[in-house]
Amino acid sequence: MDSMLLGSFPKPFSFTIGGNFGRRKTSVVNHYASSYAPTVSWHKRKIQKEHNFLRFQQLSLNNPYKGIKGGSTCQGCNRKYVVKAASEQSFESESRGLDPKNIWDSVKNSLDVFYRFSRPHTVIGTALSIISVSLLAVEKASDLSPLFFTGVMEAVVAALFMNIYIVGLNQLYDVEIDKVNKPYLPLASGEYSFHTGVLIVASFSIMSFWLGWVVGSWPLFWALFISFVLGTAYSIDVPLLRWKRFAVLAAMCILAIRAVVVQLAFFLHMQTYVYKRPAVFSRPLIFATAFMSFFSVVIALFKDIPDIEGDKIFDIQSFSVRLGQKKVFWICVSLLEMAYGVALLMGAASPCLWSKIVTCVGHAVLASVLWYRAKSVDFSRKASITEFYMFIWKLFYAEYLLIPLIR
What we know:
Blueprint: H1 2-8, E1 13-19, E2 22-28, H2 31-35, H3 42-62, H4 74-98, H5 100-117, H6 120-135, H7 146-173, H8 175-181, H9 186-189, H10 194-215, H11 218-235, H12 247-274, H13 283-302, H14 308-313, H15 319-323, H16 325-348, H17 353-375, H18 382-402
Subcellular location: Plastid, Chloroplast membrane
Keywords: Chloroplast, Membrane, Plastid, Transferase, Transit peptide, Transmembrane, Transmembrane helix
Organism: Lupinus luteus (European yellow lupine)
């Protein structure tokens, strides 16, 4: 009986077992056949099992979407899940992008970057100086008319455009220096690319000249043109220029713009273009020009005191590098105290009582505060020196509040 059975099944037969992941063939050897085939070792059976398992994997990969009973495969399920997840994630991203809070945060961040790029202390100084000098042209109450405010607005906007051109150009050529001295500036920090900086600088210079030309005031146009030339010569790195490398030339550039151009050109803009009066140089105008000459020299000297580290690295021969921070600091303080002393004498000689009181008291207070703050500066801390430099700009603003009251 055993011989007959073995003869009936000379070879192992196979049948198909269904599953959710495909088909595979399994060899089934009759118990009796295995009894009469002692030469099949356990090792061979192990190899056969491994072969069958690999064949199962290959068939599963070749039929990823089909099962024995028409059921969904795992890969099909996964694909549906990925598509659904991607759709939900895309919708979520769009929702976040349209969120008013995110839009507002983006706008605030953009404004903050541009605010730092424009060097706000110079912008405030430019606007205040033009308004103050324009008030010197006012002779009676009726002069404060819409014509006055229009003339002032035209001058301020055109000058601010030029101011942004000048400070932006300086940052374009000082990127590596600013990475040491002022890493918070947008070009140094990488918040603005060099291309973006060039675009902003070029745009604001064009807008400044365009507005000056449209207004048609020659004093205003010449003020913009001279500022453009000196601001470019101060920063641009070409032969015979980049005057900021030379302490005297750098100081002369700032003095010419802040003390002479701003005082005289914008006064003449109001006096001759807006009011159509003959050009005159009044006592208050002469005082403002002389006082701001002192102040401009101080700003030109003091601005390099906090930046001495980067200037040394890039061979910028400022007075601070040559003479030392502390010495230049006290030279600046002494110059300002001298200027306040002259202002006190000017106020005392005024024929107008209220102007005399305001001028004397105001300048005495400013001189006292300056001396008190100067003694508290810690030269071992850059932050302390920078803070005092910003305080000097506040004194600059305060002076322009006093100048229109000088009579």
